[in-house]
Design goal:
The complex is a heterodimer of chains A (262) and B (134). With 262 residues, chain A is of the alpha+beta class. Chain A is built from nine helices and ten strands. Chain A is elongated and about 100 Å long. Chain B has 134 residues and is mainly alpha-helical. In chain B, a hairpin with a 5-residue loop joins strand 1 and strand 2. Classes of the chains: A alpha+beta (262), B mainly alpha (134).
Chain lengths: 262, 134
């Protein structure tokens, strides 16, 4: 059989079309079998869940009694935070810091004794522009629509880039299996495992159930106020309008969402 | 010096073949019976219709993918309720929903995972109800 130029072009054209056709027409049999899970309707969110456009917290540190650790104890018990008993391995979600350490830029020698001796509760700042999210190579740390900077521990590979990126030291690595070091495991919240980083999650699991953050509820002095920064009528907005407040290391541009009334 | 030590080469080959084929002739004729999974728990006994979140065959085949979608949906999209195809609604929770019925993890999850050599790492973080009472 001899093929002339015309015949050859015809065959080439038909072959190309037959290759492209399934991609355009896409018959049912050509599709990969889809797991039925993805066909389910959107799950309804429970009506009682607490929602906001921008969660934030105000801390009136002047109300904090010197040796009170109620917020820390409540948070760490709720979230199964281990206590390794040495500062090198320490895992912390909320802890206390001196004013000079929390606010290095605002601190100087003649600040006054009361401020210098003040022990502020500090936690993840839930930054609006979070450096930890930007550096995470697996997107294990991500920012939710409501501003909460959250961790997906399933995805964390323990690279600790987020720890290097966080200017507030709000992230801790589990260098060892944390389970034996948890005094009493709260069955309603998972533990972590060796090799993952952890931090405060603004009690997102409690918000979903309609409960406020554990630290806020534990504070007898009502020093911690939690609310929606985008709602001008919220308790936190009204409070911050009345009182002078500071952000930790605001010059870095991370836009922290923990406001300190001093 | 001899050019080829054929004897040593042959011996080496024989040892190699014996080692490589060891699992085949050692296990020949032996059968390992598939595990009997126990559904005998108080929560399942109370169910009128013995039905998991989805069909048994689907759960058996794809529970790992299914749990993966639960995990990603709950954490990354905040979907904490799952509506099954028959309309029932479940809380998306491994410890709270799955293990509430399958409270016998050793006789249910572990038996099959051990048989297949699967090592899911779910429970290195997620709590097993009852075991957490420390």
């Amino acid at each position: 059989m001899t093929t002339n130029r015309r015949e050859f072009l015809k065959i080439a054209g038909v072959s190309t079309l037959s290759l492209i056709a399934p991609a355009i027409v896409c018959p049912a049999w050509a599709k990969e079998k889809i797991i039925p899970v993805s066909n389910f309707p959107e799950a309804l969110s429970p009506s009682k869940a607490l929602t906001a456009k921008r969660w934030a917290m105000a801390i009136d540190a002047s109300k904090c009694p010197a040796d009170c650790v109620d917020c820390i104890a409540a948070c760490h018990a709720t979230h199964n935070v281990p206590n390794f008993g040495n500062p090198k391995d320490e895992v912390k979600w909320i802890w206390k810091e001196k004013f000079a350490a929390a606010f290095p830029n605002e601190s100087h020698s003649y600040l006054g004794k009361s401020l210098q001796q003040l022990q502020l509760p500090v936690l993840c700042n839930q930054c609006a522009n979070p450096p930890c999210v930007r550096v995470c190579p697996t997107k294990a740390t991500f920012q939710r629509q409501d501003g909460i900077v959250m961790m997906d521990y399933h995805r964390c590979i323990g690279c600790r880039l987020c720890m290097a990126a966080c200017p507030y030291g709000a992230r801790s690595m589990n260098y060892r299996d944390p389970r034996p070091f948890i005094a009493r495991i709260n069955p309603d919240y998972p533990t972590r495992t060796k090799g993952v980083v952890e931090k405060c999650n603004f009690c997102q699991e409690r918000l979903a159930k309609g409960l406020g953050p554990a630290c806020v509820l534990a504070c007898k002095e009502k020093a911690l106020v939690f609310g929606d920064m985008e709602n001008p009528q919220s308790e936190i907005r009204l409070l911050l309008e009345k009182r002078f407040n500071l952000l930790r290391r605001a010059s870095l541009g991370t836009k922290p969402q923990i406001y300190y009334i001093v | 010096m001899k050019k080829h030590q054929w004897g040593m080469i042959a011996l080496g080959l024989v040892i190699f073949i014996i080692v490589v084929t060891f699992p085949f002739w050692y296990g020949k004729g032996k059968t390992s019976p598939p595990p009997q999974l126990s559904l005998d728990t108080p929560a399942i006994a109370q169910l009128k219709e013995k039905r998991c979140v989805e069909d048994t065959s689907f759960m058996r085949e794809s529970h790992m993918k299914f749990l993966g979608t639960w995990r990603d949906g709950a954490i990354r999209e905040g979907k904490r309720l799952h509506t099954a195809r028959d309309g029932r609604v479940f809380e998306v929770s491994l410890s709270g929903t799955c293990l509430k019925c399958h409270s016998n993890k050793e006789q249910f999850c572990d038996r099959c995972h051990n048989y297949l050599g699967a090592k899911p790492s779910c429970f290195s973080c997620h709590n097993i109800p009852g075991e957490a009472k420390k």
